[in-house]
Amino acid sequence: MANRRSDKHxxxxxxxxxxxxxxxxxxxxxxARGEIHDDVLAAHxxxxxxxxxxPDLRLATVYVMPLGGKDTxxxxxxLERNRxxxxxxxxxxxxxxxxxxxxxxxxxxxxxVNRIEQLLASEKVRRDLEK
Length: 131
Fold this sequence. Notes:
flat
């Protein structure tokens, strides 16, 4: 009988989801309060739509998006510059045995939705749907 944890098709555990949400909430509060002192971050409203935790809870992949999707690279660089501070603050806010390492990535959900909408609106797809 296969172990559920080793099944590649099973999703994240409840613990992974709970810790990810705690980290997402803590980081969103830090950004909203302006606790990360960086000129780039101060000039942008940054949302944190999702955080994904590794199974061992030692790596948090944080997906961020500046409001309007502008200056994404500059925002990612600013977060990267302040990663040690963010990690320390998150370790304090979220009571874990080990403070997870943090990786920042751009959230591309909206771009993917737009791409799919454009595909669905294309003439070829419309013709196929009418058949």
